[in-house]
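As the work plan foresaw, the team has encoded backbone shapes as discrete tokens. One protein thus recorded appears below exactly as we store it.

:::
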Amino acid sequence: MKMNIPITKTIFGKEEEEAIIKPLESGWVVQGPNVAKFQDMFSKFTGAKYSHATTSCTTALHLGLEAMGITKGDKVIVPSFTYVASANSVEYTGAEVVFCDIDLKTFNIDETKLEKIIKNDSSIKAIMPVHLFGLCSNIPYIMKLAKKYNLKIIEDSACGFDGWIGDKHSGTFGDVGCFSFHPRKSICTGEGGMLITNDETIASIVSQLKDHGASKSDLQRHKEKGGSLLPDFTMRGYNYRMTDMQGALGVCQMNKKDYIMNGRREVASKYNIALKNISQLITPYIPENYKHGFQSYVCIFTDDEDISNLTKEQIDRINIKRNIFMEKLEENTIATRQGTHAVHTLGYYKDKNSFKDEDFLMSYAADRLSIALPLYAGMSDEEFEYTISNIKEALK
């Protein structure tokens, strides 16, 4: 009998249902006390001094770049294998995206190629490492480069919730870290994002920028005498504020984060064991002293070929087999996805820069050969065994 296995599941219960009604009953539905509590909880968990909730991770990245002074004429290095939002947020500022290839082993930016890019272009002002699928990039090394060349660091930690190197959480290494609470992420507020920083000046600028440029938030005005008067607007801002209903969801999700993350890691561990001897798939790599957040469980499909010296022709050949494999799982109602896309192959960036697919070959390989398997807290033994048995059957 077929079972319906989604790529992931949001962990919502009675707590979220009750919490989301309270702002409706109180009438305070815009950014307010629930958002403030969510921000405080997020700061305590990550160890960041300041947290600002936003409408999405994309808008958090945009705010962070602007608060750091990134503008037209500047360039920002972004890995080519990431969701398109990473690159788009740079373009919003008027700055230019400079792509860097990835390390196929980690799916993260290839730090060995970074310094060469930086040396050859004095217009580069920042690096945006992406902690893809929950695994931190080699951010300690990237921070050394940033110090050497006086560059800003904005961490795209959209997938990085509960991802750690030692006792430091993703997003706390650089000037700014940005997170997503989209339904594909570990904790969810529908849409929504969070910007964290330890820099008081950046935090202050972001606070204004996300609220139209207002010198005081609605909540501050509500608590202060004279709040009936509108505040001053000292900068051109945006409406990137999280609603209090989303904030209420965020508080509930933070309260059950241990259940969610322990559940995701348990399923990931079961995959590691079950797929250990399947030669057609390379399972996720975790460096020593790293703690993977497992926003996704992403493998490389090799079709049992040696991929140590990949060519575009080999990638394209294996890609056909990967797609057939994914179709077979879909026929048995098991959802899969490619990990994400190689941004330099997408129409807008490809046409703008006249890129060829092979210009960033490992990103192209990750785009064509990656496969994300179903992963969520509470995945039953029956669901897991159904998934594994169908994977094995599809690979025959």
Remarks:
- The first helix runs from residue 14 to 26.
- Residues 204 and 286 are 36 Å apart (CA to CA).
- The chain has 14 helices and 13 strands.
- The two ends are 20 Å apart (CA to CA).
